[in-house]
Structures are given as structure tokens and as C-alpha cells.
Write a structure and sequence with these properties.
alpha+beta; globular; 3-stranded antiparallel beta sheet; about 70 residues
Length: about 70
């Protein structure tokens, strides 16, 4: 968590997989979060309202940029 509590950086496990055995990487996490934020009928949209953007700088790192600190997001 950044000092201003508006940037959350997550390191993913290297052994995590989806139910079909496909490895989970940062690009997949980003795609799923972006989808949940953008779909009009998303059940997660309101929970992710403070997420301004999501970055995947490498295969094992996901960075959430928030519009404001949000303790409930974690």
C-alpha cells in the first residue's frame, strides 16, 4: 500500500491456477477486474467503484490505482 493509501500492489503466487489448470497471471487478474468494473450488469461494479485503473506491470504483479483510499476494498 502506498503512503497515501491510493495505490495497492499485489504480488501473485506463482503456483496459482484456474479450475482448468491454466496459470493465473497478472494479465488475467487485470482482465477480470476491468471486466467487473465495466460490465453494466456486474455484481462487483459497486464494490470496485474506487478503482480508477488496474495495471499489470509484469506477470506476477497487479497494481490497483484508487480514486480515494478504500479500506473496504481489501
Amino acid at each position: 500500500t502506498s503512503p497515501d493509501n491510493k495505490t495497492l500492489t499485489f504480488k501473485l503466487r506463482t503456483d496459482a491456477v484456474f479450475h482448468d489448470g491454466t496459470p493465473i497471471d497478472a494479465a488475467a487478474v487485470k482482465a477480470n477486474l476491468d471486466r467487473a468494473r465495466a460490465l453494466p450488469d456486474s455484481n462487483r461494479k459497486s464494490e470496485l467503484a474506487t478503482v480508477a485503473s488496474v495495471d499489470a506491470p509484469d506477470a506476477s504483479t497487479v497494481v490497483l490505482h484508487l480514486s480515494e483510499p478504500d479500506a473496504s476494498l481489501l
